[in-house]
């Protein structure tokens, strides 16, 4: 089911197709590709200008338990650092809680599990959970407040036009 960008919320699970732009900052839960490996790739040329593909990995030990999430046998909890503009740093933890035998497993999350908004999924299909959206996403936090720079010629022309008009 397709969803509008404005309807995506923290905690939503997204299916990201090959060559699709990532709509929010996410953590990779599962990767599917033709080679059968669990390694996925993203391209961040729109964010940092680097055209090389960056590998992203789901947590191997958690993949089977994540599949059980859809049959409502487990709950997934993610805690992560507060939103910040640093594209090259991410820390968090993923906790999977089994409902029937009350048992939980915790896994550390790092940059290898994080995919930023604006990057492109390449050569694979990913299942990801949203951790930051909107103004909290790293791409938005990296946007600076820029002021328009005037050249000395523009300044002189503006003063000449003011004199002409007055």
Please provide a written account of the structure:
The protein has 166 residues and is an alpha+beta fold. It has helices at 45-48, 63-69, 138-141, 152-165; strands spanning 13-16, 25-32, 40-43, 53-56, 74-80, 92-98, 103-109, 114-115, 120-122, 125-132. 17% of the residues lie in helices and 33% in strands. β6 (92-98) and β7 form a beta hairpin. The protein is elongated, with a radius of gyration of 22 Å.
Q: What are the salient characteristics of this protein?
A:
166 residues, alpha+beta, Calcium-transporting ATPase, cytoplasmic transduction domain A, three-stranded antiparallel β-sheet, 4 helices, 17% helix, elongated
Summarize the structure.
The chain has helices at residues 45-48, 63-69, 138-141, 152-165; strands at 13-16, 25-32, 40-43, 53-56, 74-80, 92-98, 103-109, 114-115, 120-122, 125-132.
């Amino acid at each position: 089911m397709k969803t509008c960008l404005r309807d995506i919320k923290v905690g939503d699970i997204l299916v990201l197709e090959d060559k699709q732009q990532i709509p929010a900052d996410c953590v990779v839960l599962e990767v599917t590709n033709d080679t059968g490996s669990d390694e996925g790739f993203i391209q961040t040329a729109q964010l940092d200008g680097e055209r090389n593909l960056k590998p992203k990995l789901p947590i191997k030990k958690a993949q089977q338990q994540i599949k059980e999430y859809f049959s409502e046998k487990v709950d997934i909890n993610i805690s992560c650092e507060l939103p910040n503009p640093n594209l090259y740093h991410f820390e968090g933890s993923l906790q999977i809680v089994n409902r029937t035998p009350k048992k939980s497993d915790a896994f550390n999350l790092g940059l290898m599990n994080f995919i930023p908004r604006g990057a492109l999924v390449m050569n694979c299909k990913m299942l990801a959970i949203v951790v930051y959206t909107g103004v909290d996403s790293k791409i938005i936090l990296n946007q600076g407040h820029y002021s328009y720079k005037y050249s000395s010629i523009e300044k002189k022309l503006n003063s000449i036009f003011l004199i002409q008009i007055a």
